[in-house]
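Page 47, continued from p. 46.
Same chain as before, 273 aa.
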Amino acid sequence: MPEAPELEVVKDFLTANLIGTTIEGAKTLKPSVLRSLCGDIVEDMPGRSVERVERRGKFILLELSGGRLLSINPMLTGALQYCPPKRRVYKRTCLTFALSNGSELRYIDDKQMGMVYYIGDERRGDIPRLHEQGPDVLDDFTFDDFKRSLKRFHGEIKGVLTRGRVISGIGNAYSDEILFAARIYPFRKRKALSEDELRRLYDQARQVVEDAIPIVRERMGDNIHLKVRDFLKVHNKGGAPCPRCANAISQITANKRITSYCRRCQPGMLLKN
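Result:
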């Protein structure tokens, strides 16, 4: 699942390469991911220029001329690819957009779980999940705001983070990194966290994302469809030495989701929190 660091880099890349370009053609190869509320995109989209690119949590939003909006929520396996039109089209490619600068923007999705909405800008409120998110992890919100939002939730803190209602843009991988940086056991109940732990969580959520962005940007380059995570400290590093204490990193898979943490740096009990 693309998360805030990857999608922030994608947003910046698209801003640099798409603003002012015109969409000359659109193709729908796998229509299951597309919800168009403005008729057929093949007919309606060509001739519209890209005016703005925005990231909102785990969404990429392309504002087009004439009051149109292309909203992309990649979910688990979706990604955007920017490439020459002669580049081989992956079997998992769902949508392609021919650009006036001679390149193509493609939406690819292994499991077709993502959601792409093409709507009038005034209908943003009709996009599922977009406005159910909390403030973006890179937004300016205070520690008191953070604590206030957390009070509504009582489950395990990792699940609270990934749900996106308290802060958005954080998924499975970066929640592991944030909790490791904050020295918090991922299965602790939210209400069991101390004031000091909450402060560390608040500080590290933004810091971990900010630290990751330049690394992702350098390693991703023009290949914005790639998921660059080999540099992460604990996520998916089960059995490797903890970078802080050298203890073996623990890894648990539940509900098809990996949780990686250090038992020494993030002490806690799995069945009793």
